[in-house]
């Protein structure tokens, strides 16, 4: 019972992050499932089955708050589904001994990317309003879907920063569109896993626990996307993913590092993680103060202009 409650809390926390940041539900959930000894293919299958419900509720909530661009959803979602089915089929045919360190390496790479991306640059802003073309979105969706299925997560870490970096869609619509299109990816990946490993290798109760937590959090996250500082959240989540998957790799048959190596590595990661969060917080406050000062100056200018007219 305690494990089920923990899984529901994981689902809730992961969906709060995913719905606010446009990434990390699958990466966070799969990382924790692997940490408690779940088979890699079964872990990814469990997460993707739960995501069918969470992405449906999340997409509806984002649509309600005006966070979805349906043209982007259509152009990236269908290729994403094709890539996810292919990735699920590939992972299903790997042995556990091979799949576990491979998945940990993929998740570690995604975690480093999230940590560095959001700590160093935050959310980019640029050329809003210019169209996102199919020749950009289709390959992005295909690659993101494959990584998502093989790594247990990756749709958001691949898709969200790439579209944000284009500067053509405002951040809340990037996040809402990625979350909504992930519904197609989750269905395709789940179909691939059910065909590859069978229903008997998936714990339906675990799926339900993750789903329950995610469904509760989805509408809250869609509302929070307008208010939460994503730079700080990205640094925090990236650090969790890096630390957990470094632990998995160091304990795997690939490396099998002794305690004298593992614990100093953990300490260094924790120090870097803490520094990243502190830097992100400082940058967020500086940017917020700058925006406030610019708003005050603009308001004062409007008052001066009004006074001159009279």
UniProtKB/TrEMBL annotation:
Topology in the lipid bilayer: Multi-pass membrane protein
Listed Pfam families: TauE
Record's GO cellular component terms: plasma membrane
Keyword Transmembrane attributed: yes
Transmembrane segments: 98-116, 136-155, 175-197, 204-225, 263-282
The entry's keywords: Cell membrane, Membrane, Transmembrane, Transmembrane helix
Coiled coil: none
Subcellular location: Cell membrane; Membrane
Family the UniProt entry places it in: Belongs to the 4-toluene sulfonate uptake permease (TSUP) (TC 2.A.102) family.
Protein name: Probable membrane transporter protein
